[in-house]
Structure formats: structure tokens, C-alpha cells
Specification:
Length: 432
């Protein structure tokens, strides 16, 4: 199915109507080179005033998915009389200096003081979307990182943030959107532009599971350790959102990503001049909960030069250590370095130079390796597959992110993929 929606970073199926909903990320952007003598570059935003939005998608004949309605996300700001009313739309610009340096400009440009863009307390790099309950949605945010909750009309109701980051999001004028510092402070140490990319909901239990895109490297708190990018260990949170006024952290789990070498096995070979994928190339993109404990995640690896390197991986939330437990927290389990050498040493809590406890990751199973699909089925498929939704007990929808046409593709596709093994019992629900 083809859609005219630009830059969709997540999709979900509305069970009430059987239609699709999607979200954009922060708008057209690309890395820009630093001016001569500058220490580093940044991100050039072609549309600095872009407001991340939600799209209602309508299925038409001939496999076409049209945008039926756009809804921009916004906050209600405090008036002089103390009430809330004035709308301020969300921005795609970063929220703080430790995110990325924003500039005005186009792809391939040079960053300099003349083109600097401001940071924005309402900055959102929206990734993934789930219907939490009728008329209420939740999505991930690469900035912060944070989790965003909003209504069908686009009003942001709440932002779930790491401890001690309240000042980053506190709007000078005051906002009606609640700030809940319920995430462990260490989540602020996420790798740049790799925040909460995979968000899943158990609507019946009002439970949310959200995973970072990659292992942390400390850049979000100003202490970059590039070696940590070689870790396979990714943190995921489990939250109880049955009371939106009092969100509760239930657990922090560790999901081990695939070894990067799995995406370019020696027997398959690599074209001349193409480097082998690194662990830093492996990332999560979207997730669904197929029951209370089964978290199915899109995992991408290998980078664009290696073609469609994608898997669906199931993690069992009922297994593995809980980093939020008092015993593990007391040993510094929320240290950013956890899992830095996950492959050779395992995940160990180290105290005084000695391993005192091993952190167990969640059990994992590969549900689908796109490399096993017929070549004709993946011909022309984008490497940037970012949206995942359950279409039926034995089928999923996977959507492309075409980056607003920046890479030349003016449309995106939504693929319906049949699975050999059902994700849920096939006696339940209908299909899309």
C-alpha cells in the first residue's frame, strides 16, 4: 500500500474504526557540516517551524492510503489571569543543548552562527504511536528522552520524563501539560537522537512498554563514551498508566539486540567497498504488545548500504532482571556503563572491581527475519522501516519512513506481511 503521508515514524490500527493512525517525527532535517574551525556540526532543519503531527489515514482502492486529516500537537499555555488557553504548537527543534545543535538550512549545507536555530521547551522528535485508550494516544520522543500523551484534538496532556529533567520542559509561561519525572534519571544518558523509538501498549491493563532505540553512550548527559555504542544491551521501561495523573514505573528491563554480524553473515558476503555493519548500526524502531508479557519489536541493522536488514524480535517481559528493583539499584545498576561489553563479559554489576551480580536480559526469539522473505517481496522496500502494527492474528503492518522525501522518494509504503506463526490466538478480533 502506498501513502502520501510524509515522514511517518509510527503507525497503529484504531480497533474502533479499523483505520490507521500515524505520526511524523521532527520534520525535514539532515546533518550539516561545521564551519571551518568549529568543533562539531549539527542538524539543519529545512522547516524550523514544523510542528509534529498525527495523521488519520484512510484506505482507498488500489492499495492507496490517503491522509484524511492532520492534527498538530500543541500545549495550552497560561494566560495572565492564571487560566490555560493559548495554544502553542509543538516544535521539531531540540529541547536542550545536550540533544543536538539546531540550525536553519537544507541538506548538504554548512552550520554556522548565521544559521543557528533556538532550542525549544516544546521540542518533540516523535517516534511511534499507540492508542492508549479511546481518544488518547502515547508516543516516544528521541529528545530527553520522554514519552508523550495527547488527546485526539492534539492537546498534549502529559510528558513522562527522566528524573531531574523537569526544568528542561518547564515552559516559561506555564503549560497545562503535566510533567511526570517517573523515568530513572539515567535514561537522560541515552545516545544522541536515539531516545524512545519503540512504544507498545496493553490497552486492557493500561500498561506501556517502551524501549530506547540503542544502547546508551552518555551523550545525553555530556559524558560521551563511544565504546558503549558497541553494547547490545538496551533498556526498556514498563509503566502503569491506568491513572494518567499518577503514572507508575513498574520495571526496567534489558533487551539484548542481535549481534551486528547476524545481519551480514560471512557466507552471504559483502560487496566490494562496503564495510561490515557495526553494533552501533543496530536499532529498535517500533513495538507492539501481543499480550501482557510478549513484546514484539522491529529491529533494524546493517545500515542503508546493506539493504533491507530487518527483524521482528519477541521479548518476554516476564523474564530477566528488573533494574528498578532495590537490590540491583543499590549496586548501581542504573549506571550508564551497564552492558558496555555485553558480548564478551555478559551484563555484570561491578563493585570494587569485582562482579557481584549478573543482570539477566529478557528471553528473546526472532519471529521474522526479512532476509528469509522472497527476494521479490523485498525488492524496492525501504531500509528505514519504522512503523509496526498488528493487522490480524497472523499478520502485521510495517511502514516506511521516507524522511519527507529528502532521499528522493516522495511517497512511502505500508506493507502487510503474513506470518507463519500467529502472534495472537486467531479466534480473537478481525483484521485489516
Amino acid at each position: 500500500m502506498c501513502t502520501d503521508a510524509p515522514g511517518l515514524s509510527g503507525i497503529d490500527v484504531d480497533p474502533a474504526s479499523g483505520t490507521l493512525v500515524g505520526v511524523t517525527d521532527r520534520g525535514p532535517n539532515a546533518a550539516c557540516a561545521p564551519e571551518e574551525g568549529a568543533p562539531r556540526g549539527g542538524v539543519a532543519f529545512a522547516m524550523p517551524g514544523f510542528a509534529p503531527a498525527m495523521a488519520q489515514l484512510a484506505l482507498e482502492g488500489g492499495g492507496v492510503v490517503r491522509v484524511a486529516n492532520w492534527t498538530g500537537l500543541f500545549e495550552r499555555l497560561r494566560r495572565e489571569d492564571g487560566t490555560f488557553g493559548a495554544r502553542q504548537y509543538a516544535s521539531g527543534l531540540p529541547t536542550k543543548a545536550l540533544d543536538e545543535r539546531p540550525f536553519r538550512g537544507k541538506r548538504g549545507g554548512v552550520c554556522g552562527p548565521w544559521s543557528a536555530a533556538p532550542y525549544h521547551p516544546g521540542g518533540v522528535d516523535l517516534e511511534d504511536v499507540r492508542i492508549l485508550r479511546p481518544g488518547v494516544y502515547i508516543g516516544g520522543d528521541d529528545y530527553g528522552p520522554s514519552l508523550l500523551i495527547w488527546r485526539a484534538d492534539g492537546e498534549i496532556l502529559a510528558r513522562l520524563i527522566p528524573e531531574h529533567l523537569g526544568g528542561t520542559y518547564a515552559h516559561p509561561q506555564g503549560s497545562a501539560a503535566a510533567l511526570h519525572p517517573v523515568l530513572p534519571a539515567i535514561f537522560a544518558a541515552r545516545r544522541g537522537n536515539r531516545g524512545f523509538e519503540a512504544v507498545a501498549v496493553d490497552a486492557a491493563a493500561q500498561t506501556v512498554a517502551a524501549c530506547l532505540e540503542s544502547a546508551m553512550d552518555g551523550s545525553g548527559v555530556g559524558g560521551v563514551d563511544a565504546a558503549l555504542r558497541g553494547s547490545r544491551a538496551v533498556r526498556c521501561v514498563v509503566l502503569d498508566l491506568s491513572d494518567l495523573a499518577r503514572p507508575t514505573l513498574k520495571a526496567v528491563k534489558v533487551a539484548m539486540q542481535s549481534d551486528a554480524r547476524d545481519y551480514a553473515p560471512a557466507e552471504r558476503g559483502l560487496p566490494d567497498g562496503v564495510p561490515a555493519p557495526t553494533q552501533a548500526d543496530v536499532r529498535f524502531s517500533s513495538a507492539v504488545l501481543t499480550d501482557a508479557t510478549s513484546l514484539v519489536v522491529i529491529e533494524r541493522g546493517g545500515g542503508a548500504v546493506h539493504g533491507v536488514q530487518t527483524r521482528l524480535v519477541r521479548y518476554n517481559l516476564a523474564t530477566g532482571s528488573d533494574l528498578a528493583s532495590p537490590a540491583l539499584a543499590a549496586h548501581g545498576c542504573n549506571d550508564v556503563a551497564l552492558g558496555a561489553s555485553g558480548a564478551p563479559r555478559g551484563l555484570e554489576v561491578v563493585e570494587g572491581g569485582a562482579a557481584v551480580e549478573t543482570v539477566r536480559p529478557m528471553d528473546r526469539t526472532v519471529v521474522l527475519d526479512f532476509a528469509a522473505l522472497p527476494r521479490a517481496d523485498v525488492a524496492g522496500m525501504e531500509t528505514k522501516l519504522e512503523g509496526l502494527a498488528v493487522a490480524a492474528c497472523d499478520a502485521v503492518l510495517v511502514s516506511e519512513d521516507n524522511d519527507f522525501g529528502y532521499r528522493g522518494k516522495t511517497y512511502a509504503k505500508v506493507y502487510r506481511i503474513a506470518l507463519d506463526v500467529p502472534l495472537t490466538p486467531c479466534s480473537e478480533g478481525g483484521e485489516l
